[in-house]
């Protein structure tokens, strides 16, 4: 037989064996002498050993007493901290637009290497459904994926729009039913949806048992969305609800695409903070979950982050060169209409007061990055979001809840994930320092467990290095 054919067949055999090994039952692990941050309560359980079998936490106990299975892979975690994997509730992909779709797994690996073991992709498409299938079948690595529908909007409001235009209630009913049939987990709303169309979406979604998430259009307003039980992104329409009656611009403030309008920024002078308790109470009574995406909105539009600052960030090497010019153009456009620093700082301050008041009232807040908007990198920006929650007045523990227990509760998976307890899935992050002492310690990642597989620090670095190559 030709030597070239023999080499080819041997290589084919190696690939087959590798796939079989990856798809096989995951090994047992023992994470030894670790300090557990269980997220069942605020605190640390010191010097524990965690046994993991078949991708589930089998038992947790005193490191001196727990019996370790003979076949377990032992992980020395002395002095380290084990917490549940993080959830990012608002993610897009570069590969949704012009970036080659074959690189989507590399995008997901940047998230995973940052300790993000669950993601909700907003504005989904069939490629995302295929990615989820491959991750589930262990053909590729990546976080657990929840996928919202393609965006529903009242018009194609930007060049290259890939969502679904719903101008009539009939179109809305069809769109919701179609997205449910296609297997999407949520109905995602964006801009210019009229009240009749919105009401049709909500009614049909309830009948189809699929939840509605996303933006609140300027015609819909906050009260209608709260009454409908919509899960809200970006604190949309909250600023509008705080305005005094004599506010300019027909009461339209900086929610959604109002953030690009100079007239909308003038309304920051008419915010009535005394309305905050009333609006927060209405949010609590409605049981509505909010994803503020503060890191994105505050950095990009409040602090008006410039390119110099972006270039120093560790995630810069995960930004495709093809996207940089697009970002520069957007930033230049924003700078031509940018509000005064006083109004931009008030924008941040009022949002932080809302977030703190919501938390103190018992409203549900979830962490979402809205990456890769404005060149903010996957995973890295979720850690910034946790820092922004703390800046708003939440404790590190409460901030961690926004990326662990609360999204797990909203997604309906708290019985299997979101905390570290026996019987739950082993979606875990090992840290070199205590995140309850300093929320920035979530970035000191030593290892990640996802889908029953352990990725040590070197493997995570290799994962990032490999992903960085495709973004050049």
TrEMBL record:
<dbReference type="InterPro" id="IPR011059">
    <property type="entry name" value="Metal-dep_hydrolase_composite"/>
</dbReference>
<protein>
    <submittedName>
        <fullName>Amidohydrolase family protein</fullName>
    </submittedName>
</protein>
<dbReference type="InterPro" id="IPR051781">
    <property type="entry name" value="Metallo-dep_Hydrolase"/>
</dbReference>
<dbReference type="InterPro" id="IPR006680">
    <property type="entry name" value="Amidohydro-rel"/>
</dbReference>
<keyword id="KW-0378">Hydrolase</keyword>
<feature type="domain" description="Amidohydrolase-related">
    <location>
        <begin position="81"/>
        <end position="454"/>
    </location>
</feature>
<dbReference type="GO" id="GO:0016810">
    <property type="term" value="F:hydrolase activity, acting on carbon-nitrogen (but not peptide) bonds"/>
</dbReference>
<dbReference type="Pfam" id="PF01979">
    <property type="entry name" value="Amidohydro_1"/>
</dbReference>
<dbReference type="InterPro" id="IPR032466">
    <property type="entry name" value="Metal_Hydrolase"/>
</dbReference>
């Amino acid at each position: 037989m030709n030597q070239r054919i023999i080499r080819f067949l041997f290589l084919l055999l190696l690939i087959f064996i590798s796939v079989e090994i990856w798809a096989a039952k995951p090994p047992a692990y023992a994470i030894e002498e670790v300090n557990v941050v269980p997220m069942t309560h605020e605190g640390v359980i010191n010097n524990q050993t965690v046994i993991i079998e078949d991708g589930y936490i089998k038992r947790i106990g005193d490191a001196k007493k727990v019996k370790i299975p003979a076949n377990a892979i032992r992980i020395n975690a002395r002095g380290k901290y084990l917490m549940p994997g993080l959830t990012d509730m608002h993610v897009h992909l570069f590969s949704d637009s012009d970036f080659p779709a074959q690189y989507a797994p590399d995008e997901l690996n940047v998230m995973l290497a940052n300790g993000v073991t669950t993601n909700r992709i907003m504005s989904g498409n069939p490629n995302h459904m295929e990615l989820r299938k491959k991750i589930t079948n262990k053909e590729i690595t990546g976080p657990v994926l929840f996928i919202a529908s393609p965006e529903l909007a009242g018009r194609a409001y930007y060049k290259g729009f890939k969502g679904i235009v719903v101008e009539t209630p009939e179109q809305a009913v069809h769109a919701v039913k179609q997205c449910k049939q296609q297997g999407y987990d949520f109905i995602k709303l964006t801009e210019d949806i009229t009240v009749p169309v919105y009401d049709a979406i909500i009614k049909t979604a309830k009948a189809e048992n699929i939840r509605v998430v996303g933006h609140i259009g300027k015609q819909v307003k906050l009260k209608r969305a709260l009454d409908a039980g919509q899960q809200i992104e970006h604190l949309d329409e909250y600023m509008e609800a705080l305005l005094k009656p004599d506010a300019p611009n027909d009461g339209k403030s900086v929610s959604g695409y109002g953030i690009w309008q100079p007239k909308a920024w003038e309304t920051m002078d008419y915010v009535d903070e005394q309305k905050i308790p009333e609006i927060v109470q209405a949010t609590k009574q409605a049981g509505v979950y909010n994803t503020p995406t503060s890191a994105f909105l505050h950095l990009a539009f409040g602090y008006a982050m410039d390119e110099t600052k972006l270039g120093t960030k560790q995630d810069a090497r995960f930004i495709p060169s093809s996207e940089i010019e697009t970002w520069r153009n957007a930033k230049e456009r924003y700078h031509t209409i940018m509000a005064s620093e006083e109004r931009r700082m008030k924008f941040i301050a009022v949002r932080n007061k809302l977030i703190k008041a919501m938390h103190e009232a018992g409203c549900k807040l979830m962490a979402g990055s809205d990456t890769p908007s404005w060149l903010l990198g996957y995973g890295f920006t979720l850690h910034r979001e946790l820092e922004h929650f703390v800046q708003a007045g939440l404790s590190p523990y409460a901030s961690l809840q926004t990326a662990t227990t609360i999204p797990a509760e909203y997604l309906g998976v708290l019985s299997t994930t979101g905390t570290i307890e026996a019987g739950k899935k082993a979606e875990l992050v090992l840290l070199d320092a205590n995140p309850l002492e300093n929320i920035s310690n979530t970035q000191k990642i030593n290892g990640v467990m996802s889908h029953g597989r352990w990725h040590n620090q070197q493997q995570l670095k290799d994962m990032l290095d490999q992903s960085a190559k495709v973004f050049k």
